[in-house]
């Protein structure tokens, strides 16, 4: 789109430059494909000025917002309404502006859940092992606890208080059966021995630290589904090892695309042109 005029409404990303490389291209390609009078732009927002940024978006009647780290928690207090899933997770990554009200949602976990289901790996009724207890793990654990009800969710993490808090919150807010242990060689071996689905939700393996994995290759089995939330690089060492072991593998790009498509649909009320968005994502990554 060559210009923005009064007929266009804005969707915006509030975050830091590190998050700006893909989102605008992805959403603008979707808007253009459906001839929608929307444009997506990125704003660098310092934490101390987040409230001002939200006030500006409200005053200018933006259509919606994407929220990245480090703003996801603080943004929760700046919206008028929050959906049940986002409230259970405790942070938001999406805002829809409707009738002058800011409505918050969190679609991170839903994007990952959609990727799992599309790959024939619905967590419902299955034994799931999750590595990590930070933001990505929280979004996914609470989402699958609420929406998929695994038979057992085992969470292994390195930060004891964070891990305990996440396990407690998943039990209290979803009723899901949860076990939590510190991540050690022994707990990893035991968890992998029982798991049907492995969800990796830590930064290990992310660019530039590409050649690291928490999971030794010889502990991967061909009947295991392996999902890695890391999307840069697309083929992490974990996923390469899992593919070599005969596992079904799901890239983090599928989570990224899934949450972007859900944001698009919340803002527009129309099905996202996923294949067009996928081509843009493939080209950028």
Describe the structure.
- The chain is of the alpha/beta class and 285 residues long.
- It has two domains: 9-106 and 256-284, Rossmann fold; 109-250, Rossmann fold.
- It contains eleven helices and twelve strands.
- The chain has helices spanning 23-33, 50-59, 72-75, 84-89, 108-118, 135-147, 160-174, 185-194, 237-244, 252-268, 274-284, and strands at 9-15, 38-44, 64-67, 81-82, 94-98, 101-105, 127-131, 152-157, 178-182, 197-200, 225-228, 248-250.
- The strands form two sheets. A six-stranded mixed beta sheet has the order 2-1-3-5-6-4, with helices on both faces. Strands 9-8-7-10-11-12 form a six-stranded parallel beta sheet, sandwiched between helices.
- Helix 9 (237-244) links the parallel strand 11 and strand 12.
- It is globular, with a radius of gyration of 19 Å.
- It starts with 8 loop residues before the first strand and ends with a helix.
Helix-strand topology string: EHEHEHEHEEHEHEHEHEEHEHH
Radius of gyration: 19 Å
The helix fraction, in percent, is 40-55%
* Helix run count: 11
Give the quaternary arrangement of the chains.
single chain
Write down the CATH topology of the largest domain.
Rossmann fold
Strand order of the largest sheet: 2-1-3-5-6-4
Strand content: 15-25%
State the CATH superfamily name of the largest domain: NAD(P)-binding Rossmann-like Domain
CATH architecture level-2 label of the largest domain: 3-Layer(aba) Sandwich
Count of folded domains: 2
| Mean pLDDT across every amino acid position | 93
Largest sheet properties: 6 strands, mixed
How many angstroms separate the termini? Answer: 22 Å
Detail the poorly predicted runs: 1-6
**According to CATH, what is the class of the largest domain?**
Alpha Beta
How does the overall form come out from the CA principal axes?
Answer: globular
Structural class: alpha/beta
Total beta strands: 12
């Amino acid at each position: 789109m060559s210009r923005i005029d009064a007929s266009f409404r804005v969707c915006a990303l509030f975050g830091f430059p590190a998050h700006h490389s893909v989102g605008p291209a992805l959403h603008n390609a979707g808007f253009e494909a459906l001839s929608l009078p929307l444009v997506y732009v990125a704003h660098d927002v310092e934490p101390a000025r987040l409230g001002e940024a939200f006030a500006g978006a409200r005053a200018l009647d933006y259509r919606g917002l994407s929220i990245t780290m480090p703003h996801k928690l603080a943004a929760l207090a700046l919206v008028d309404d929050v959906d049940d899933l986002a409230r259970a997770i405790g942070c938001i990554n999406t805002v829809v502006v409707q009738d002058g009200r800011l409505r918050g949602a969190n679609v991170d976990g839903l994007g990952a859940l959609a990727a799992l289901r599309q790959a024939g790996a619905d967590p419902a009724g299955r034994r799931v092992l999750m590595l990590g207890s930070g933001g990505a793990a929280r979004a996914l654990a609470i989402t699958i606890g609420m929406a998929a009800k695994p038979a057992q969710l085992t969470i292994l993490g390195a930060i004891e208080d964070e891990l305990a808090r996440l396990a407690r919150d998943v039990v209290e807010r979803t009723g899901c059966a949860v076990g939590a242990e510190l991540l050690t060689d022994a707990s990893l071996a035991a968890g992998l021995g029982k798991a049907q689905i492995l969800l990796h939700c830590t930064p290990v393996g992310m660019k530039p630290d590409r050649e690291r994995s928490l999971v030794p290759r010889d502990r991967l089995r061909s009947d295991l589904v392996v999902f890695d939330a890391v999307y840069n690089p697309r083929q992490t060492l974990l996923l390469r090892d899992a593919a070599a072991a005969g596992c079904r593998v799901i890239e983090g790009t599928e989570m990224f695309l899934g949450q972007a498509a859900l944001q698009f649909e919340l803002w527009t009320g129309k099905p996202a042109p996923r294949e067009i968005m996928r081509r843009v994502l493939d080209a950028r990554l």
